[in-house]
Amino acid sequence: MTPVCIGIAGGSASGKTTVVRTIKEAYQGRVTVISHDSYYKAQDDKPMSARIRQNYDHPDAFETDRLVRDLEALRAGKPVDIPVYDFAAHTRAKETRHLKPAPFLLVEGILILSDPNLRKLFDYALFLDTPEEERLARRIARDQIERGRSEASIREQIAKTVEPMYRQYVAPSKQYANRVFEGKSSALVAKHLLEWMKAHEASSNSFNN
pTM to 2 decimals? Predict the structure, then answer.
């Protein structure tokens, strides 16, 4: 059976990772997760000063065509080795991560619905339309704790690239989602997705029988 591919989109720090974590816990061993962030392009040829100034919220920052190929391979039942991005060094790590196919493939990222070749692979797609103030507060807290950045540098990045790119690329892509959740909690979104997955399984089992 072809794996079911689900896209979880939304702005930076909108709650996507929390939704994914809940689904993984509920479907242990039956879900493979891919983050679009893993496909940030390598920047080994650039000095650190240039890497820091890179616009990481623009579609050109990602090697999305590789993600498409990897997702097609997983849907075909083939394992893949995906990139690992080092956020401290602002470039790809030397190692890769080996992923095996699973009944459900979850793909999360800010721009996964803006690319037509990627979004056509999704059987179902959600968009978390989280209020700006909430997203920004989460982003500042996350980047300070997980990526060792100063609050000043985070706020500068948000003002220069994160929010402008959100308005230009991310927000418009919600038109391609099967379901948009405006201001809803990650728990509610995860509950909806779990119900959809169970219904899909029941439907598939009924058809096969």
Answer: 0.92
Residue 7's closest CA among 116, 135, 105?
105
With 0-12 / 13-18 / 19 or more C-beta atoms within 10 angstroms meaning exposed / middle / buried, residue 50 is exposed
The two tokens of residue 180 are: 């948009």
- Tens digit of each residue's pLDDT, the chain (209 residues): 799 999 999 999 999 999 999 999 999 999 999 999 999 999 999 999 999 889 999 999 999 999 999 999 999 999 999 999 998 899 999 999 999 999 999 999 999 999 999 999 999 999 999 998 899 899 899 888 887 788 898 898 899 999 999 999 999 999 999 999 999 899 999 999 999 999 999 887 765 65
Cβ(109)–Cβ(10) below 8 Å: no
> What is the residue extent of each domain of the chain?
4-208
Task: Please report, as a single letter, which amino acid is at residue 138.
Answer: R
Give the full edge-to-edge strand order of the sheet including 179-182: 31-35, 104-109, 4-10, 124-129, 179-182
Return the residue matching tokens 């992923």: 99
Q: Are 157 and 48 in contact (CB under 8 A)?
A: no
DSSP 110-132: SSTTT-HHHHTT-SEEEEEE--H
Is-contact 55 161, C-beta < 8 A? yes
Give the DSSP per-residue string, 74-91. Answer: HHTT--EEEEEEETTTTE
* Residue 104, both tokens: 């459900």
CATH of domain 4-208: 3.40.50.300
